Amino acid sequence: MNVTDSIAHILAEEGVEHLIGFPSNPLFDDNAAEKAGIRPIVVRQERTGAHMLDGIARVTSGDQVEAFACQHGPGTENSIGGLAQAYVESAPMVAFPAGYSRAKTNTDPKFSSLINYQHVTKTTEQLTDPDAVDETVRRAFQAARNGRQRPGLVEIPKDVFDEEIGEIEYSPTTSTRTAPDPDGVPEIAEVLLEAERPVINAGQGVHYAKGWEPLKEVAELLEAPVATTLNGKSAFPEDHPLSLGAGSKSEPRELNHFLEQSDVIFGIGCSFTKTAYGITVPEGKTVIHSTLDAGDIDKDVKSDYALVGDAKLTLEALRDEIADQLDGEPRGRLAEVEAEISSIHEEWVEDWRPKLTSDETPINPYRVVHELDRTIEKESIIATADAGNARDFMAPFFEVTEPLSYVGWGKTTQLGYGLGLMMGAKLAHPEKVCVHVMGDGAIGMTGMDFETAVREDIPVLEIVLNNFEMASYDTPFSGHYADFAESMGGYGERIEDPNEVAPAIQRGVTETEEGTPVLLEFLTAKETSLSRPDLA
Fold this sequence. Notes:
By secondary structure, the protein is α/β, with parallel strands linked by helices.
């Protein structure tokens, strides 16, 4: 057995179902992965492959840790953005980039994954000793699966792949959870119960911990409204009367209102990182911060109380303690809180209704989002929006009700990210309608991988908001993206009539259900109005 076959064997033992990336890498070239029962998928651009693995990880709560591989040199250079994005968004995967042969590894200007990936992966190693393949790969998977989940990477010099080694006996890694300090739970429960206007901010950690039900139970016991981060969108049902929606560059009006009026803010499974794409914690609030990564405590936002641990275990401990302290007596403010949320929300929606239902041409992009929100059943959808205005239109006005039905992001994000995310989501959940909304800029970055969706039978639904320029930057673009989709073997349709938006979406869903990737190109107006806290 050589090193290539050994790695393929280990991947199969780890439960890897997909090896995604780009040749030349012996894991692809020698059919090693396929012989081990792993589906190889070759993408048009390396970072899209990493984005696909990111999507798989996110819609499986980090349970499915898949593998990436690429060529030495140019392949590793092209891939760094995809791994960096997964690192920022805490998405686990294990990457196996080829490296230059051991004799050339340190020869300038050879690109070294060992050196250059250290800041965008959780662990980075170079396999120089073929006999250490099992322990080296095990460390990468262990790092990816446990604690704050992020990519692990093993660079394999070209000459190492073919080295012969003995048979290996490999036991797959496991995932562990950490519980919060039990001595800290009663005091925090008391602070939450004594608060006059508590607000809960739920992040992606709730998804990874599968803490959706205890989150709802804690909110209902406290009679407290719940906001989510963009990564955490869908962790709390947005049709729940205590929902405030997702914090982002554009957000529902009630979210900022309740944050400003709050006295205690409880962040669960979030980092409280200061970003343009998340909530801003107002001054003078009592902050309770619970997260898996102790490094996030007091990083950007000073906390008054903290609990470090798995979000589900933390929420369950708080739920039980709050219930005990309440002794079956509700706080008695539920109707008042729900009425306040509803009143602000309804007023906000009415203010935006002219854009959401606009009959203008070119089509207002808010009309596209509104029809998408109304057309596809929430139980059957997984959605995302790309960077820029597509995100700003979707985040507040596309309502999600099921856990893991939206893949958001919250720090730095590359244009074109969402195509790979939804291709990965579709691989993990072929029964779902996986929808990606993007603009002209995003399709220019990764649009050729629509052909990958066709070639690999991954029937995603792509929605392009085409206003012939990049968002609000006055940078003109051109293209007939529906024709492009057809030329790649998919279903493409260009829509100019606002009354055809919903029917076109329905046609697109039908095509995906029949196994065809779809691109719907909506000719839209330039829209610069956003639902910001100061304007919402």
